[in-house]
Amino acid sequence: MTEIVGRDTELATLAAFLAGAGGALVVRGDTGVGKSALVDKAAAATGGRVLRSVGTEAESGIAYAGLHQILYPLLAHADGLDDGTRAAFDTIFGRGSAEPPSVLALGVAVLDLLALAAGPAPLLIVVDDAHWFDAQSVALGTFIARRLSGHNVHLLAAVRAEVASGWDVAGLPALPVPPLAAAAASVLLARTAPDLGEAARTEILREAQGNPLALVELPRAAGSADGGLAGRLFGARIAALSPPVRASLLRAALDGAGRFRYRLSGVAEAFESGLVTADPGSGDVVFRHPLVRSALLRSATPDERRAAHLELAELHEQDAERYARHLAAATVDPSEEVAEALEVAAHVASERGGAASAVAMLTRAAELSPEAPERSRRLAEAAFVAAQAALLDEALELAEVQSPAAVLASVYSAFYRDGDVRAAHRRVAAALAGAVEPDTRERLLDLLVAISLYSQDAELWRVTEGLFDQAGPLSEIYRDTMGDVVRTGQGAVERVRAAFARVGAGRPWDVMRLGVSAYFVDTLAEHRAIVERVATRELHGGAVTNAMTLLQLVMLDQMDAGEWDDALATGRRGLELTIEHEYALFEHQFYGYIGLVHAWRGDFEAAGRAADRLDRWARPRGVGYLTAVAEAIGTAAGLTSGDYETAYAYASGLSSPGTFTPYSHQSVRTFLDLIEAAVHTGRVPQARAHALAAVAAGLPALSERLDFLVAAALAMTDSPGASFEAAVARPAAGRFPFELARVRLAQGMWLRRQRAHTAARAALSLADAEFERLGAGPWAARARVELRAGGPGAALTAQEREVALLAAGGLSNKEIGAKLFLSPRTVGAHLYRVFPKLGISSRASLRDALS
Known about the structure:
Rossmann fold, Arc Repressor Mutant, subunit A, two-stranded antiparallel ribbon, Tscrpt_reg_LuxR_C, adenylate cyclase activity, ATP-binding, DNA binding
């Protein structure tokens, strides 16, 4: 190993890092600046086990290829893990058939494996050229890196400063490696080339610009005609190799793996050339520097590269993605066999969270398709997957002009980025009116349903429904649940459940749409584990467009489940993602859901900002779904603050009492809100009419949540035969804690009016505790007022009743005091205790309360 010169500061930093507790450090610098030498020096000095891996551009598109390198030597330790933890990454390495795990689940499993492998001795993971790791491995690597404290494991990741990667934005500690200072560069050149003439020495120092690799190799490469840095440094040595060794090294370079997967021809010659070396930890043969790989690829002829790829395809025949990539690289003329292999590999990649990789494979499959129809179909597939991966510009480029696939790609862009509902609906409907290939037709239908959902326009929905003469079962589920769910959603719970059982966690676009359907029939909690797992899986290099909606679903279920802090965290995460990709539609949707939580918690300023922002963006564009969310925020804020007239104005605008606005999901979501607002404003007949209309429309059969809420609404409106106890005993009541707490609050108020103080206090205590847990301060305060007015000690004392009767008669505190020989202050204190006992807040209510 060449002596390291001028790096005392960097070496001291590395030594201190390795001497400390477990953690991660990113070593960042330009090509050839000496990152690998520094990391190797650090690895040689550590007293424990060293695991090495190398990122390569050839494998940067293969999901989990980098993680496989790191963990493959440790798989023997997996037998020491419990079944659930081991299964989390078994599927990644082809050792099981379970669904791919999320980043969280896989990350925890990997941490357990590393801890088991390390034992009492330190474990160092070295990742050279980490910027070439695939997106999934980067996501896992950075997840693990942030959680190594407390483990006897260190991770060193060397990345090129000029190549952007996920390591740059992971927030990990970094060690920058700059070019050598002039004095150190001069010393290094003198040590490596002591016989160099002064003129050549000056020229090399000028050209190297402090780059250690250039300082070491340029003297040896004098006279090379290759203009590239890799060629100038290693071109002459590659040219001097015997043909078998050169061919063998070329295959290693094209394979992209960190270690050679087959027996290297002419090991001695390869070592003598200085192009390969032995890994200090494992003894495996590895390239001396990543630039050796670049130089080998530049030196090979196209025929030599194709022959090498063909041999590598045979080597990786059991690995769908590697097999297809090498086979495609070896193929020049159109070949249906190769195109089919690429298409299979693309489907495998999509189901492993590698949608971005799938786009490249489908594009190449289209290029190699001999027949025009297959070429068009595969290009359409590539454009569709690109849109799901938030690569909207690429999707537009892939789609053939004027083709249905082009309509898909362009409408995705206009719809998600600009919220152009009517134009998007018109274009998709027009495309469906013509002859369309079946798969593309299904996708256009599904997109039309999504556009219609956001429009909440009955006329657009009628057009959409008129195009469903040739729809598949999944599309029919989406139509029936995302459309006029009150009238078409009966039996959808079972259909969604059966569809999830068929789809599993496979294609993310199917999981996403089924998740939306599940939310609209209130069964999202059943499927949240799959939704959350696929959302996490697709965030990095996967179907990012779908991940945005999946995160919305996770947030909505967290809201329903009373996990409001987690819901806000998910909402902020989704906002960052949508803003990054400029998806204005989803960005404002996240603002709306965040605003709802703020409204229920009583942060009226934040809720008002969210509603205003949402309404100003959505209403001019005709995005009715989002304007309805803005009005739902107004309803929630009114109920929370006690401004029931405002709440009623908003709620009755979403759904007139006694009716359910067609195609409006908020008219169903705000069912309880309208009932409460109507009751509190004295509009009990309207409230009762709305509860009875829900029964007539079959809402209790639509979902268990609505069964619970309709039963509660009947009790709140004093409908014959209804009871609060029957409502709160419904199966779904406990799954919706905020709504249950509101029903218990109403129950407690009703019981107090019936003088059932003990039962009232029990109901109100439960409501108060739940509101407090949720952080719904105004609701908790309201429950506590009711608690003070009911239960033991709530009856008025003789003097309190006498004071209350006189006050109800219109006397002032001073006049009451004169009659009862009390000071006005004492009269005021009595009234202060009387008001909460009677459940009122002013003198005006005394007469009715006392009667």
